[in-house]
Amino acid sequence: VREAPLSTREHDDAQSFDYDHDRLPGRRGQELRHARESKERWAKIVGKIDEDGDGFVTVEELKAWIKFAQKRWIYEDVERQWKGHDLNEDGLVSWEEYKNATYGYILDDPDPDDGFNYKQMMVRDERRFKMADKDGDLAATKEEFTAFLHPEEYDYMKDIVVQETMEDIDKNGDGFIDLEEYIGDMYSQDGDADEPEWVKTEREQFVEFRDKNRDGKMDKEETKDWILPSDYDHAEAEARHLVYESDQDKDGKLTREEIVDKSDLFVGSQATDFGEALVRHDEF
């Protein structure tokens, strides 16, 4: 009895790479097939970013991709949450619907065992919801709900973003962020250990750039300039960083090979959403 071939692929010695991977048994074969499929996914992603099809990815093309990935992530997040909060399916999410879906299970127990103050969080959410709700009817349209979930994307929500940030960092409640509060938000002193160099740099940044009027603390406007700078493009900064780190021949643009060689950097970048793109099976 003739045995069936190990692979259904036709064997061509000149192009036997894929065939050989299919013949390998067990985990090793799976790993190599996965690597091949991953390489194909990389080729597809890079092809999407390379808008002019010249075989290179420029800073501008990468910047456009990052902005696209961010918009897609926000859209999908809103769609997912919309389904869980528009309880009566009337095309609006009312504050009552959101409150009941999010906090209903703890409203009867305002002081749960974990010690977290859910009531305070609910009050904060209600304040943000009312800010996002432009017409004041306490029922959010899809656009208003997006502004509620992602306020940093909307100009009219910037004040609430600044207010919430200050409330999080201003531990002594004086309405300002002083140097120690600023550092404490990003670094926790561990005993007598020396501060890392980056913390010292942040202290210098606070004194030289954050505290513009040199009064030892950041007010609302200074905090806004810090977290929502008008002259800073996050997508462009991330694109320039990725090109700088990956551009081996320093020609100012990336080949597919240069991107794949630094795949960990790209997958690790939340801005590119590459990690998600590699495992998606739909077109993006």
Oligomer state of the chains in this structure: single chain
What is the CA-atom radius of gyration, in angstroms? Answer: 25 Å
User: So what's the overall shape?
Assistant: globular
Strand order in the largest sheet = 1-2
Count of helical stretches: 14
- Helix fraction bin: 55-70%
End-to-end Cα distance, whole Å, is 48 Å
Low-confidence stretches: 1-25
Structural class: mainly alpha
The tally of beta strands, per DSSP, is: 4
Largest sheet, in brief, is: 2 strands, antiparallel
Order of helices and strands: HHHEHHEHHEHHEHHHHH
Roughly what fraction of the amino acids lie in strands?
under 5%
Family: Belongs to the CREC family.
GO cellular component, one term: melanosome
Region (Disordered): 1-32
Main location: endoplasmic reticulum
Helix and strand topology:
Layout: H1 17-23, H2 26-49, H3 59-85, E1 93-94, H4 95-103, H5 118-132, E2 139-140, H6 142-149, H7 158-169, E3 177-178, H8 179-184, H9 197-210, E4 217-218, H10 220-227, H11 234-246, H12 256-261, H13 263-268, H14 274-279
Antiparallel strand pairs: 1-2, 3-4
Quick summary of this structure?
The chain has 284 residues and is mostly helical. Helix content is 57%, strand content 3%.
